[in-house]
C-alpha cells in the first residue's frame, strides 16, 4: 500500500514487551493511542510486535526493527523486578555496556530517598552507554533513547507522558490525513470499483473494513493520504459510488481531516 | 522465562494482517480471545505481529514464524477487495500455486447464488495448493490451513467460529494453569524476594504487573505452570511473602486453576 512507501512519512515499529498481553490477561490499550499520536506527527506505525521477556527475543527483535524502520518504540520491562530485562537486552542488541546514568540515579534518589534506594530500585538507573533519558513525571524511573530506539514504560499513564515528551522533540513528517465513509453495501459488491479507484489514485490508501454492529453488516471505507487534494477527490468518488448503488453514506467526514475523523 | 521452553506446551505465533489496527482506528480484540483459547489447549502464544497488507511483509513474516513456532495463526485479509491479499501472499511464502478449491467454490456458489458469484467473490475460493479448508458458518468464505499456518478472517465473530473449529482438531499440549494474587505493595519492595522465588521454582513463571486502578497503585503477581503442585507451592509462598510485609492479598485464586482465575 502506497502510504508505507510515502516519502513524506517516517516509518515506525512498536515492540510491546511482556507476557501479560500474550497470556490474554491484559488487553493492549497502548497501540491505538501510540498509532494516533504518531500519525499526527507524520510517522506511520508500520509494524507492531508483542514479545515475551526473553532476552534473546528482545535482542533479535530490536536489532531487526532498528535496521528496518526510522524509529522503534518499546513499552514494558523497565521496572525493578526479575522480569524487567529490557534495558539490559537493548544494550546487548547494540553491543553497548549497561551503565549507571548519574542523572537517572539522582532522580531515583530524590524519588525514593537514598536510604530506600535498594538494589532493585537502583537497577532502574542502568541504561545502555550513550543513552538520552526520557523523564517519568509519574513514578521516577526514566525511560531512555539509544540510537533510533525509544524505551518506555508499559503502564499506560507513564508511557503516555514519556511518548508526549519524545514526540515534542522527534523529527516529524507530513501529517497523514484520513477520511472515513460508512455504508451498508456488502464489500464484495463494490470490490471491483474499489480496485479501479485504488489504481487510479496510487497516493491514497483505500481500506475496506466490513463490521457487524448490532447484528447488522456494515462497511467502512477509510482513505489515507498526506495530500489533501487527492484525499478529497477520492472521497467524493467513493460517495458517488455508494449513491450509484442506491445506498446513502450514513456517516462521513469530508473536506477536513485529522485523527478525530478517523472514527465516525 | 521457563514456560517458553516448557516441553509440555506447543508454541504459537499470531499474525494480525491489516492496516486498521496499525492506524489506531480499531483496537485489537482478537489477541486476548485467541490467547485464552490456546492456553486452554496447552498452546502458548509466544509472539504476536501486526503487519500491513503489503505482500512482501506477509511473505517474510509467515516464512519466519512458520519456521520458528509449532503453529501460526493469521487473521484478516481473506475478503473480496483489493486489500485482501493474504491467501496469495501465503501461497507465495511457501512457493505454492494459488488455485481454486472446488469445495470452497461450491460453498460460495451456495451462499451467493451462481448468478451473483462475481470475480471478487469467486476470488475467495482461491487457496494455496494442498490447503485444508476452515469452514465459515457466518458468511460463507472459508479460511484454510497450509502446513502449520492457519489462515482466518479478521472479523471477530467469524474468526472465533474458525478458531473453535481448528482447536477441536489441533494437536494439544498440557493446559497451562495460572494463579493470580494481588496486593498493594510497591513491586520494588518485593523485587528481591520474587527473584529468589523465581530462581527456586524454575518450572513456574512469576510475572509482576503494577497497575493504577482508581488512582491507587496496586500489584498483580501472576504464576503460570503446567505442574499444579509447583503452582500451588509458589502461590502459598507468595501469599506468605505479602503477609510478612504487613499487607493482605486482596483478591486471590488458590488451589484451583483455569483461565477464569487469570483475572481476579
Automatic annotation (TrEMBL), chains A, B:
It comes from the Bacteria. Residues 13-174 form the MoaB/Mog domain. SMART domains: MoCF_biosynth. CDD domains: cinA. Signal peptide: none annotated. PANTHER family: NICOTINAMIDE-NUCLEOTIDE AMIDOHYDROLASE PNCC, NMN AMIDOHYDROLASE-LIKE PROTEIN YFAY. This is Putative molybdopterin binding domain protein.
